[in-house]
Automatic annotation (TrEMBL):
Record field: transmembrane: none
Domain SET, chain residue ranges per copy: 158-290
The name this protein goes by in its record: SET domain-containing protein
Signal sequence bounds: none
Lineage, opening ranks: Eukaryota, Fungi, Dikarya, Ascomycota, Pezizomycotina
SUPFAM superfamilies (UniProt xref): SET domain
Amino acid sequence: MSMKKRNRLAWDTSVFESVGGTEVRLAAVTKECPPKIHPSLQPHGLFGCPMAIDEETAGPRPVDWSPWTHPPECLTAGYDRKNGTKYCIYTNSAHGHRGVSLITTPDTAANIVELLDDFNPDFMHEQDPYKLASNRTYTVPIRRDTGAGHPESAGKQRSYEVVDIPYKGKGVVATRRIKRGDVVMVDFASLVLHLAFPGSVRRLDGYELLLKATGQLAEPERVLGLARRRDHPPNVVEDVLRTNSFQFELDDKPHMALYADVASSQSSLAARVIAYRDIEPGEELSLSYVEVGKTHEERQRALQRWGFTCTCAICTAPASEIAASDARRTRIRALKADIVEALNGGDANNKNKNKNLDRAIEMAHEVVALVRREELRSLYAEQYDALGRLYWATGDRARGVAYARLSLKTLEDIGYIEPGEEQLPKLLATYGEAGSESQR
């Protein structure tokens, strides 16, 4: 999933003024925001043109800092109180399952406020048995570990449970068969922190703001009770963030996000876990903490920031299997670089261009075979798309379309996109002009 990029927020409400019983349109704004629209004048539930506010400009009334449920509290980086970057707490204690608190700049908070209202009910569907009704509320009962809140009439077994796993602590285990592409669980961000914040403010002041941001959530204990690297850290929230959060971009700025249950997302402020393969009852569910495709040594080195050693089947395989896997992954990386070199190394001569395309296609097929051998399922769609583009460039539209369809089908299977033939023209439109068969 990828974060939606919003350079400008949209306000698509027309403003009218009544003159002598006749409505006169004063402004019909699309794609751009009118300047300084006070929060109290914005359409209810649609935060299209929010103002950047801090503790000095928010005003005394709740409507002045809506949609946040608490007035912002801020710290200024460095010693320049007038011109230094300001970081503030922005909390909506009703968002998601237990509320969300952001510590970020006023501009970023204003630019992403639409995410609080950017909700697609289909995103929330956990395949059998708990589907959310099509509305705009966030009362989703699927994230209570005790099962509390589930409709008694559902009459079906929940897909997972949280249990103690020897030498690991808490883990998630399937309680029934989960099909590939099923949505297993859904979670919302609890804390979102600008990546520059911890190193930009006085440590003790930063600690105080972190505790305040957590305390304003509907269920602070859900965050405070997460795993930590130290038994007695200087600040519990900071240790929880360093142990459990993931980096992502918000408003094109680097942030870290903490999901109390899922622990990763780059799609609005919500995340869902989707099964990449069929999962049998009793199997432990896991997600990748590091970029998919790294070698064993790279994975272990990257995992040090979370303070644990991975004991999954891939990381604890016999040395000979790890070596073979590393060799395949290293080969994948080298082939991808060679493909780029082949495509960039040609000249205007059609013969050389076609030769380079042929070589690139050959290497791309090898990449697909290696990716499948390594079961790097999250990379399948990307590699099919690459092959589609390569064949398209040679003028072989039939194979280009075939691999484009295969890429889309893969994305459908893992629940990344909704099924529909309308996706194909959109993808092919990005392929550009195809070469002609006569060039071959």
